[in-house]
Amino acid sequence: MGELICKSHNVSLLMYHFVCAAKYRRLVINEEVDPLLKDVCLEISKRYEIRFLEIGTEGDHAHFLVQSVPMYSPTKIVTKIKSITAREIFAKVPSVKKKLWGGEFWSDGYFVSTVGEHGNENVIREYVQNQGRDGKYKQLHKEKLSNRQLTLF
């Protein structure tokens, strides 16, 4: 699992699971692209504070388990990953660009989920509830499952 990242003013353990789909969900992530994708990601980790804990592919999409620092938002991380990997794949595997009609490698969207070292939401909730000094945790708010959809206005 991830390790603590110690900076001058903070210590963090932030991990994310990203899923990025190839444009048009084309099956362009193959045996030729896989090693290149891995190598490019490892080079990214040398230049940026983005550490790849795991990389996996399934033909039309890729999974990235990533650890980073608080100053990098999930959007900044995935944008960096998608832009650099796309540029390098197009440059080194021209047949992929042809299959995608000369356009973009990745689709515009992505999936992101935070990954906790110590478990799921219920484990963390129980941990927080047990932190009271005298065991008297006072719950001020608990979101109902039906209210989980975010609204714009």
Description:
The chain has 153 residues and is an alpha+beta fold. The strands form 2 sheets. The protein has a 4-stranded antiparallel β-sheet, covered by helices on one side. Strands 1-2 form a two-stranded antiparallel sheet. It has helices at residues 33-47, 74-92, 94-99, 121-129, and strands spanning 5-6, 11-12, 14-21, 50-57, 61-68, 111-115. The mean pLDDT is 85. The protein is elongated, with a radius of gyration of 19 Å. Helix 1 (33-47) crosses helix 2. It contains 4 helices and 6 strands. The protein has one domain (5-131): Transposase IS200-like (Alpha-Beta Plaits), CATH 3.30.70.
SSE layout and pairing:
Blueprint lengths: L4 E2 L4 E2 L1 E8 L11 H15 L2 E8 L3 E8 L5 H19 L1 H6 L11 E5 L5 H9 L24
Antiparallel strand pairs: 1-2, 3-5, 3-6, 4-5
Helix pairs in contact: 1-2
